[in-house]
Amino acid sequence: MIKQLLKNSSIMSKVMSSYEAALMIKDGMTVATSGFTPSGYPKAVPQALADIVESTGKKIKITLFTGASVGEEIDGRWTQAGIICKRMPYQTNNLLRNSINKGECEFSDIHLSNFAQNIRYGFYDEIDIAIIEAVGITEDGFIIPSTSVGASPVYVQKAKKVIVEINTSLSSELEGFADVYIPDDPPHRLPIPLCRAEQRIGTTYIPCDKDKIAAIVISEIQDKHSIFSECDDTSLKISKHLLDFLHNEIIMKRVPKTLLPLQSGVGNIANAVLSGIEKSSFSNITFYTEVIQDSMLKLIKAGKAVFASGTALTLSTECFKEFEKNISFYKERLVLRPQEVSNSPEIIRRLGVIAINTAIEADIYGNINSTNLFGTRMMNGIGGSGDFARNAYLTIFTLPSTAKNGDISSIVPMVSHHDHTEHDVMIVITENGVADLRGLSPKQRAMAIINNCSHPYYRPMLKDYFLRSQKFGSLHTPHKLEEALSWHIRFLRYGSMKNNISDSFSVV
Q1: Cα–Cα distance measured from residue 384 to residue 379, given in angstroms and rounded to the nearest whole number
Q2: Residues 260, 150 share a domain
Q3: Any domain includes 38
Q4: If both were cysteines, with which of 116, 143, 179, 199 could 151 make a disulfide (CB 3.0 to 4.6 Å apart)?
Q5: How far apart are CA 172 and CA 94, in angstroms?
Q6: In the predicted structure, residue 235 carries a pLDDT above the cut 80
Q7: CA pseudo-torsion sign 437, 441, 442, 448
Q8: What is the pLDDT of residues 382-434, one digit of tens each?
Q9: pLDDT at position 228
Q10: What are phi and psi of 468, to 5 degrees?
Q11: Whole domain around residue 362: which residue ranges?
């Protein structure tokens, strides 16, 4: 079986245990791994390294690059073992998140479309070792990626050494899903020749100098598949508002009946929003996105969608079984690209993508915070939302109007951290309604967001702030600066943003 997966006989001598491969990783190295939200990441070698550190007390501190978030075997175990001293460009692991927010691990939050090219440009540390999960190696020594492509092509290109984890739990029929295209660098960069979501422009493998391959490890450890909750009432209402909005765009002849290629962020709300399309009148939909999720496969199977382009398959256990069972069907309808292509501003703008992403909070003027709770505490990272928000045909942000059982208003006077400015935000949708911000002045945006998106409890408070702020300074974007972040301060002090929490509250 191994000979069938390793078609180049000259590399058979490099097959070794995960323990032997892990010993190649030394203190102070920069290590890059495959994987994207979390799919297609190595598991055996990372766990072996954690075992070595924990059993011997050996000090190993490394800088870790990935495509986006990876599984517990890396971010969780390596955090517990004290291995990660710096992390880029995105994460979702709770242990690692706490380590970052405690200042134990440095974290650099980067637009995912920029990360791979920045490595090629030499902006970051040189990569000592890349660990790439694969389903096989070709006769030429090229690597066939598993369930994600992410930044792996650039890691293989720039790393001094490459460790390949062959995952035998995955079907070899995954070969053919990847479309690997690496853009040229300035000043010789040409347009990326991609004009349709379903178009293929690259290779089905990651080019690799076989002499770089330092180790091959056989693994049977599966991805920790995503768990998506059932659609709650709030998500269903958001979904209905979104679908109604898109229907109206068709009526107004601003988008075709088949819509334009859709991009959706990751998570329960995103999946719930997309699931509403299955019962809608939309058909022949395409996706040009980062992560191919359950809802997209269901839409393809139901005949509502015809194609999905992304950089990773992030599926629930049940949906992944369905995918494996019908892999030949999906091979004609899915493609996985490097993240600098899936998230390319050039392509997003060319295709006219409709971008649908979630947010932590929005302010009354349409600024969006996607990353930092109360301005300081990192949640996950910006991911690819900025790539799409800045360049999409339509930029839509969805979020519940409240959090923490109503003690937090997700619509606030001023966001505590800016990820997407009002210049990039066209549409804001909560369970309460839709704020169409296109062509509106700041004061007009404020009234649209307050009236249509805010929770009824907080709406009078927001109106009061907005009216009083107009008595101070400029009337272009009115703010009462001493109160602009007072809602956040009130929650941090008293556990709620509600105005009856403490009559003694005063702004400091």
Answers
A1: 15
A2: no
A3: yes
A4: 116
A5: 33
A6: yes
A7: negative
A8: 999 999 999 999 999 999 999 999 999 999 999 999 999 999 999 999 999 99
A9: 66
A10: -70, -35
A11: 233-290+343-494
- Beta pairing, strands 354-358 & 106-107: unpaired
The answer to whether residue 502 sits within a structural domain is no
Rg of the Cα trace of the chain?
24
For the stretch 304-349, pLDDT in tens is: 999 999 999 999 999 999 999 999 999 999 999 999 999 999 999 9
Tell whether 258 and 129 lie within a shared domain.
no
Q: Does 505 have pLDDT greater than 50?
A: no
Per residue in 265-306, pLDDT tens? 877 777 777 878 888 889 999 999 999 999 899 999 999 999
Judge whether 319 lies within some domain: no
Number of domains comprising the chain: 2
**Residue range 197-230, pLDDT digits in tens:** 999 999 999 999 999 999 999 999 988 876 666 7
Cis amide prior to 89 (ω within 30 degrees): yes
Could you tell me which of 94, 315, 321 has the C-alpha nearest to residue 226? 315
Pairing of strands 427-430, 433-436: antiparallel
Q: Looking at 170, 189, 219, which one is the last position of a domain?
A: 219
Within this chain, do residues 44 and 187 fall inside the same structural domain, yes or no? yes
Cα–Cα distance measured from residue 66 to residue 41, given in angstroms and rounded to the nearest whole number: 9
| DSSP 8-state assignment for residue 176 | T
d(CA 121, CA 140): 27
Q: Are residues 273 and 352 in the same domain?
A: yes
Tell me, yes or no, whether 147 and 251 share the same domain: no
DSSP-assigned letter for residue 73: I
User: Quick one: pLDDT at residue 319?
Assistant: 92
Mean pLDDT of the residues in the chain = 94
CA 337 to chain CA centroid, nearest Å: 14
| Tokens 């175990």 found at | 77
What are residue 427's DSSP bridge partners?
396, 436
135/197 Cα distance (integer angstroms): 25
Q: What does the block give as tokens for 14?
A: 């490099």
User: Which residues are marked as active site?
Assistant: 290
| Core vs surface per residue 79-90: b (16+ CB within 10 A) or e | bbbbbbbbbbbb
Assess whether the previous peptide bond of 442 is cis (omega < 30° from 0): no
Question: pLDDT digits over 116-162, tens only?
Answer: 999 999 999 999 999 999 999 999 999 999 999 999 999 999 999 99
H or E element that contains 145 = strand 143-145
Angle at which helices 268-275 and 294-301 cross, to 10°: 20
Tell me whether residue 409 is exposed, middle or buried, using C-beta atoms within 10 angstroms of its C-beta: 0 to 12, 13 to 18, 19 or more: buried
Task: Report the CATH number that the domain containing residue 168 is assigned in CATH.
Answer: 3.40.1080.10
User: What sign for the dihedral angle of Cα 272, 275, 276, 282?
Assistant: positive
pLDDT in tens, 373-383: 999 999 999 99
